[in-house]
Amino acid sequence: MTNRRDFLRVTGAVGAGLVLGLHLDAKSKAGTAQFRPNAFLALRPDGTVCISVPKTEMGQGVRTSLPLIVAEELDLDWSRIEVVTALPGPEFKAMQTGGSTSVSSTWTPLRKAGAAAREMLKAAAAAQWNIGVDQCRTENGFVLGPRGRKLSYGHLAEAAAKQPVPKDPMLKQPADYRLLGKRTPRFDGPAIVTGKAVFGLDVRRPGQRFAAVLRCPVPGGQPRAWDETKGLAVQGVKAVVKVPTGLAVVADSTWAAFKGREALATSTTWDEGVGKDFSTLALEAKMRAALMGPADEARRVGDAEKALAAATNVLEAEYAFPYQAHATVEPMNATVHIQGEGVETWTGSQSPNEVQERTAAAVGLKTEQSKVNVTLLGGGFGRRLGTDFSTEAALVAKAAGGGPIQVVWDREDDFCHDLHHPATLHRMRAGLDGSGAISAWAHRIAGPSILRSWMGGQKSPDQASAEAGGALDIPYAIPAITVDFAEVEAPTPLGWLRAVEIVPNVFARECFLDEVAHATGKDPLQLRLDLLGDQDIVKFGQDEADLRRLKKVLQVATGKAGWGRKLTAGRGLGLACHAYDCRTYVAQVAEVSVVKGRLRIHKVTCAVDCGIVVNPWGLEAQVEGGIAFGLSALFTQITWEQGRTVQTGFQDFPILRLPDMPAVEIHVVLSREAPSGMGEPPVPLAIPAVLNAIFAATGKRIRRVPLDGESLT
Amino acid sequence: MPTYQLTVNGRLRHVDAEPDTPLLWILRDTLGLTGTKFGCGQGVCGSCTIHLDGQAVKSCQTRLKDVAEHTIITVEGLSKDGSHPIQKAWLAEDVAQCGYCQPGMIMTAAALLKHKAHPTDGDIDGAFAGHICRCGTYPRIRKAVKRAAGGAK
After folding, report:
1. Treating both helix axes as pointing N-terminal to C-terminal, what angle do B138-151 and B85-92 enclose, rounded to 10 degrees?
2. Which residue among A192, A331, A655 places its CB closest to the CB of B99?
3. Residues B65 and B126 reside in one and the same domain
């Protein structure tokens, strides 16, 4: 019988050392299911330790942070650790990686696994020395006993495997941490700097061929007529096969596949399908109408409409955020080999379990006949939660005789057939009473639903709240609040982009609050502190935010940035803050100058409280990178005309580059709370902090992203 | 198909391919040197940067026929064991995040230091303006270049 306490078990064969399987789904209720460990920890007799990581590495550092958690409790010698990415399957059922949850969801079980192994090693040493366990302690890969006795973990591994697994091992106190909280370089660094790191595109299998798919420039369109001899005439091209997403050109090199596709394109005509007339201009008109029409409620406090009607003054503004692309530097790709009764896939995926299942289904096999090797991801940012590219590769392999075939997207494929982040419009209204205090807040969001697109066109009962993150959890104490979502349909496939809807929603919220501050003659920091009030906790449904932590990061960020100091003409400071998913508390102050219409972002000061810090280097990388990611969206957009994306590459999607990167100053508010997450939380504040700083510098209020250079002149 | 003779990472290689094939694909698909990355194929992201006769160039914009008889160094050939000062500085500053664009960044950094032992911030801006890192490792790239420059004194 298994119950939820039985999360750990010795799973290794005799001679393998101490191999522990652990069950990571800490939230699962007591069940009778067979014990299915979904992470492994192996202490081998030779003293090396292998840790399998059940999440995918896309730069956020899980192949370093998760092993660190185990190594801390187990007192491992960090230099002897090997890290492998797990294989999805019945043992690893929850590998999906997103939402800044990898550390928070594994924190307790990984610590318990490490602590249990430590207890077993100590028990084995105590038995060997014939002393009490309490006379043993552990340090850097050894059990130490009285009078200088010392045995290595490798030596003890076999004996430790025969010890009972403790159900509730004692966990370390944070004051005793040796690894957590110290800067540890990322595990994959040496492989990356020597070019040995293997990303999806670097997979090379014996006999491998390469394919490029000629896709309709309008997503969802189909080829009507084509002349395959045009593609086959190109040197190196072996086959042209029809797949649901278009025409795949299979060749003996990537370049031949690209050339063959180019030749094939000249002969191909398209049925462009239902999306052929779509344009962002027409969408915007529909969204504007939806700002005034019916909507689904996401949050309601009091009666905001009544309070607005009764207000002495009402401020109103419209904010706009565009379609965005993920633009990972490694384009989408997957390598698939179908052989006999099995299919094997190599790809960088944030959804390995879904790849396993859908690849099998695509080629007519069962999930258990499908093996997925997760490579490093050359950027994820939510794009690789999608399985469109791996399923397509499976279908190409099937149509072309089994493979192995690597399907390579080029940059234009990647931009035009992304699972984009959709545009939104925001109608913001604030009611002010006679004293200038905010009596009502209304935030209407209009746009396509990401969740509906993700669920194959079905509307989820959670749709409004899913599209209103960052708006519905407005932390400010306002007597009447309404937040709602008015859906506007769009034919383009949508997906999750780092911090998702929180980016546009917090942009609108924090900029509009800045407008209210200036309109009522209040300092934007003081207004926020006033609105956070004396309350300690605010609840949003099941979640609750700790306003003391939010106030603290506000005070730290503004204090360090010199909020309120006198600046030269054309220079300004802007502020934004958010309690991300009620878990990670972030405040940012941007310092900008606008000289002759030219914007320079000099510095972003960021204060963060994410609970216990596993690896400060990882945290700082996420803040620096999150700010760069957030700021890029101030300049980039995807627009649609006649069903096609106007932007087709980096040349017309100006991602922030090194010369424009501001200085980033990071202040961590120390905490003993359990760690939360850091991948997404820094992203949404960069835009409102900078736009509020532009207002402070110039008096110009920017309500539309991307920033149009002319709006500053 | 014509045969071309190139020197890649100190080894003489003979390659049969169309003359207009980008060097990037010769390196990745013909010679198996996958450390040089494909990001855009249009010369705007810098992921495919290599050294051609000591200069940093974008291999996706370099045709095979133009590099015959020339000397090519890729990230795999920068050092035998990751001991190039730039590689060491990259690890010391823990620069990489996802790591995909980093070989190109490293090749640009190595070429920059070769030509200017102590680059200014402006030199660094100029050298990396042709690169994209979507993870935003820029502050650490700047630090790593300065660290390596300091070490070269």
Report:
1. 130
2. A192
3. no
Mean pLDDT by 10 residues, chain A (713 residues): 50 71 48 43 89 94 96 94 89 87 92 92 97 97 97 94 90 95 97 98 98 98 98 98 98 98 98 97 98 98 98 98 98 97 98 98 98 98 98 98 96 98 98 97 98 95 97 97 98 98 98 98 98 93 95 98 96 98 97 96 98 97 98 98 98 98 97 96 98 97 92 84
Q: Which amino acid is at A117?
A: A
ipTM of the complex model: 0.98
Burial of residue B88 (number of CB atoms within 10 Å: 0-12, 13-18, 19+): middle
d(C-alpha A56, C-alpha A95), whole Å: 7
When the candidates are 3.30.450.90, 3.30.365.10, 3.40.50.300, 3.40.50.150, the CATH number that belongs to A280-324+420-712 is: 3.30.365.10
Task: Among A186, A203, A346, A658, pick the best mutation site for testing chain B contact (most B Cβ within 10 A).
Answer: A658
- pTM exceeds 0.80 for this model: yes
Give the integer Cα–Cα distance in Å for A444 and A427: 5
Q: Which amino acid is at B62?
A: T
Distance CA B105, CA B78 (A): 13
Residues B52 and B25 in one domain: yes
Q: Which listed CATH number (3.40.309.10, 3.30.365.10, 3.30.390.30, 3.40.50.720) goes with A200-272+332-408?
A: 3.30.365.10
Cβ contact A468:A428 at 8 Å? no
C-alpha angle A272-A276-A282 in degrees, rounded to nearest 5: 175
Chain B residue numbers touching A255 (CB-CB < 8 A):
21-22, 25, 29
